[in-house]
Design a protein that fits this description.
The chain is 32% helix and 23% strand. With 496 residues, it is α/β, with parallel strands linked by helices. The strands form 7 sheets. Strands 3-2-1-4-5-6-22 form a 7-stranded parallel sheet, sandwiched between helices. It has a 5-stranded mixed sheet with strand order 17-7-20-21-23. Helix 6 packs antiparallel against helix 7 (193-202). The longest helix has 19 residues, at 167-185. It is globular, with a radius of gyration of 22 Å. The protein starts with 14 loop residues before the first strand and ends in a 6-residue tail after the last helix.
Length: 496
């Protein structure tokens, strides 16, 4: 039975924050400063003693507890700390998402996380199929749980709303609006002009994606933040959660698979359940799967790190035939070029046969320059490519909130925007970012990400290729020069 939800006050009586890593460190001060949360109403729990991360917030009255939620204590643990009308921010890792979602529904607690987690994502890795290790399966478990409920009513819960996944779902809608508007203003709509006008007015983004000719969407990110403290041997450095990056990175690469794709890698695996079947996964770590991509600083190569957008964004942008089959869906995946020290860390991790380094470090105060270019690269329309996103520098980030990096501020700002939505809309049930009002969420995020950069780019994965040994046995027969938006054209090295 679902609890009687009583969110009568603008702010919750209690807010429980699970996890005190880099995102929580940035989010908690913003809740106090920008959303007006009473510090005494905020309670942080982490199994590590990370009080130093939030010392200023603790001085204002936030409480901190060194403990952890487990499979066995979840009900008693949460019941003692939150109840009807409260908010739970799950910024930890390895807490089973369906379990905690259902608990929150039954107890009238609003909920938000930044990723869909399991109790033990590393269990039986060697004997589990690539498909069963995907986020697709995790999202399907949430879908089936909601079906079992019979109704998606109850307290609002937002699944996967950080920067990416999260903010990028709103950015892709902004990009599609900008592309469509530019096409109409330039007379490039052709026979689809009326359809584009109608879909734009109605904000039917799946139709806009189809009619603009969009084939591929990269969540395209390049992190150029540089530290004055080099990475040490046997140390994993990153600008955000090391454990989170590791867990995502050693998992299979996941790709929302477009209807235009003609070729599939030999180690690709599809899903054959009763879900949307809109993804493939590769039987290799995302950290080993590189593609050509583009951000405003230029062409780069990025890792296909699995993210929920490959499921939710791809699903929301699908156009159905009358018989229920997919008439159109784009290829959607993350293309992540992390900071230089993170790339060095990944290379060392690979040398260690994917056994995690004994030490880890999240970059913060030692960052001396750089920015995080995070956005969506929408490809296939008459302008070829179009990038929409944030170009937040470390100096801009510190001016917005001292002591933070550009990466963590982008994530925390997106969390704060979603928390504001939880306050304003407390009874919407379980939602993914693509379900939320994109303009409202993007406006709420803007103070933390700087000006949104939204421009066309004359780029394809074939336009800047260079072979230093042409004609000496390198085989590029899988390249499709008649359609630059085929997956084989993005892969690097070129598939054989």
């Amino acid at each position: 039975m679902t609890a009687t939800f009583a969110a009568t006050a603008r702010h919750p009586r209690r807010t429980l924050v699970l996890g005190c890593g880099s995102v929580a460190q940035c989010t908690v001060p913003l809740l106090i400063r920008d959303l007006g949360f009473d510090p005494k109403s905020i309670h942080i729990v982490d199994f590590r003693d990370n009080r130093h991360r939030v010392a200023d917030s603790l001085a204002k009255g936030v409480t901190y507890e060194q403990d952890r939620v487990t499979k066995d204590n979840l009900d008693a643990f949460l019941s003692a700390r939150v109840g009807d009308g409260d908010i739970l921010l799950d910024l930890a890792w390895n807490i089973d998402c369906p379990t905690i979602l259902e608990w929150c529904r039954d107890h009238g607690v609003r909920y938000l996380n930044t990723s869909v987690e399991l109790w033990d994502p590393y269990h039986d890795m060697q004997t589990t199929t690539p498909q069963d290790r995907t986020l697709y399966v995790r999202h399907q478990s949430i879908r089936k749980m909601i079906e079992r409920w019979g109704s998606n009513s109850g307290p609002s819960a937002v699944v996967e709303h950080g920067a990416n996944p999260g903010m990028v779902s709103h950015l892709v809608k902004r990009a599609l609006v900008d592309i469509t508007t530019a096409m109409l203003n330039s007379g490039l709509g052709g026979a689809n002009t009326t359809g584009l006008q109608d879909a734009l007015a109605a904000e039917h983004f799946n139709v806009l994606a189809q009619l603009t000719g969009t084939k591929v969407i990269h969540i395209a990110e390049r992190d150029t933040q540089i530290t004055n403290r080099p990475k040490e041997v046997n140390e994993f450095c990153n600008t955000w959660s090391v454990e989170g990056f590791y867990e995502e990175g050693i998992a299979p690469a996941e790709i929302g698979w477009g209807t235009h794709e003609k070729w599939m890698p030999a180690n690709a695996h599809s899903h054959h359940d009763d879900g949307p079947r809109n993804q493939i996964c590769l039987a290799q770590p995302g950290m080993e799967s590189w593609v050509r991509s583009w951000v405003p600083s230029g062409q780069n190569i990025g890792m296909i790190i699995r993210h929920g957008e490959s499921y939710t964004m791809c699903k929301h942008l699908t156009v159905k035939n009358p018989d229920g089959t997919d008439a159109y869906r784009p290829t959607v995946h993350y293309a992540y070029h992390p900071s230089d020290v993170a790339i060095d860390s990944v290379l060392e991790l690979r040398m260690r046969n994917w056994e995690m380094q004994p030490r880890e470090r999240i970059l913060n105060d030692e960052i001396i320059s750089g920015r995080d270019e995070l956005g969506v690269l929408v490809m296939g329309h008459p302008f070829k490519s179009w990038w929409t996103g944030s170009l937040l520098s470390i100096d801009e980030a510190r001016s917005i909130l001292p002591g933070q990096s550009a990466t963590t501020l982008q994530v925390a700002g997106s969390v704060v925007a979603a928390v504001q939505w939880l306050i304003d809309c407390p009874t919407e049930g379980v939602c993914v970012p693509d379900d939320l009002p994109w303009k409202k969420l993007l406006d709420a995020t803007r103070p933390y990400i700087g000006e949104i950069h939204s421009v066309p780019a004359d780029w394809t994965p074939l336009s800047e290729r260079f072979d230093p040994f042409p004609g000496f046995g390198n085989d590029d027969r899988l390249l499709d020069r008649s359609d630059p938006w085929q997956f084989a054209n993005f892969l690097t090295p070129t598939p054989r």
